Amino acid sequence: MDRERQSDTSDSETTDVRRINQQPGIREGRYDPNRFRLHFEKESREEVERRKKLAREKVLDQMLDKDLEVDINDIYPTEKGLEFPRRPPWNYGMNREELLRKEEKSYREYLNDLHSRNPPGSLSHFEHNLETWRQLWRVLEMSDVILLIVDIRHPVLQFPPALYHYITGELQKQVVVVLNKADLCPPPLVLAWTHYLQTQFPHLHCVCFTSHPGQPYSTVLQKKRMRKKGTCGWGHAGGPTHILKACQEITAGKVDLSSWEKKIQRDAVAMGSEGEQSEEGADSVLVEHQSDVAMEMSSPSQELYKDGVLTLGCIGFPNVGKSSVLNSLVGRKVVSVSRTPGHTKYFQTYYLTPTVKLCDCPGLVFPSLVNKQLQILAGIYPVSQLQEPYSSVGYLCERTPFLSVLKLRHPSVEGPQHAPKGGEKEREQGPEHSWTAWDVCEAWAERRGYKTAKAARNDVYRAANSLLRLAVDGRLCLCLRPPAYNDQREQWESHPDLAEIIALQGRKEEEGAGERDEEEEGESSSEPEEERDRDADDDDEDGDDEDDGFGHPAVKERKGPTSLTVNMFDVLRENECE
């Protein structure tokens, strides 16, 4: 029976679904690359046109810091029934086809119930591909401890309470939430989010993590992070030791994790002087591919740590950095890394040591009430496939000081585009000019030299995509805050654990002030630096760090007197070390 056709039928009978991230056709003897591609609900043409018109007309109003505070109960209210599909009961007397039909029927009932509780348009984008949900079921069944990986910039968007309660309640397993990309947030905010999640979920283990300690972006257009000597390479990630300690606490001596601890130490020693791991220092990695039959007809094991092996399941939304965490834990690159949502397409297990193995699950978007524009800024929806990116740009600009960061000139001001200086900045960006999302995109297109092929007009669509990619990558950083954060800011800025977070990020306490002073002295770098900052929104051809897969041909940045130098914490409107 055709599995792809089965899933398509079960989806389309309930709602109109758009299938995105289409990959090249199936090759003989190869795994179907489209089996787990993202399935999201289609938006009507009328809704897309309405938002496009609004982006042209609505004047942007700067939001207050208080407006960035988000409560998880507003994203996942219990009364809305925002559950996730569960695997229906089964027994070994069923054959494969019968099991699949039962799963599809149960999934249709789940979607019908979800849509009956929530009016049309109220739900966020969420996964409609049953095949991907099946992968989640298998990982949950196989794993002893679940690593739920979230982006520290907006963790409540990616932490479904229903999943947590199912794992800790029905499955009787432990959850470790990995607050990834910790280097993109000020240390006080990292501490505040950790405290908030532990308060909301007392049995939750929280671990901060970064794959790029001490590798900040020096400019908003920088293609790759600055690599300080001795800080690049998977073995220098900040956080593997913390995950080990959390697992040691959970297993309580039932599994021998000494081999894992020794591996972390070996990985640190094996890194060369420039941060690159030598071939002879790299451990071999055993990769185990799971067949369909093995995944579908396997019973959930009630025995934890079977045969003395700890199985860690890596689960998370798209683009939270699951593959980067896995690579950092292994100590070498075993999974390709991409900023494209839904990049991990298949089920694999990796033996970290003889007593520890990792299961990597494709990214899954759970249903919620989060704003769809915020979902896009969180990297959940592929930027290159947006029909209307302008409203998301407006949402971003209302919550960040975009004018001071991007050095834009209003489209109504005649003359060549360049970065304003001194009094000119006030004349061109003063209060007499009102900005819409469309104005921002047009000004950015002019600033970057994006032109349409035939008429040579400003390419506002490409400019909008460029700005959204800057936000997704963390070069134009939007961080949400937990409730009451602004009232308690001083408490977090003087917290005794602050030094530990700064060390994890690979920063020095005086770095924040140094960056701020440098920016105030001259808001630009030299002309050669702007030359080095290639088209930052275009895709990385080597596919090693940021392989979007939907990029445009690179357009060389025009030389100008000013580069877009930015302190990441100025974008957040706070100094990291105050």
From TrEMBL:
Presence of the UniProt keyword tRNA-binding in the record: no
One function term, GO molecular function aspect: GTPase activity
Residue ranges with Acidic residues bias: 516-548
Biased amino acid composition, Basic and acidic residues: 421-431, 506-515
Region (Disordered): 1-32, 413-434, 506-578
Presence of the UniProt keyword Transmembrane helix in the record: no
A Pfam family per the record: MMR_HSR1
Keywords from the named record: GTP-binding, Nucleotide-binding, Phosphoprotein
Domain of life of the source: Eukaryota
UniProt domain CP-type G: residue ranges: 133-367
Function: Possible regulatory or functional link with the histocompatibility cluster.
Name of the protein this chain belongs to: Guanine nucleotide-binding protein-like 1
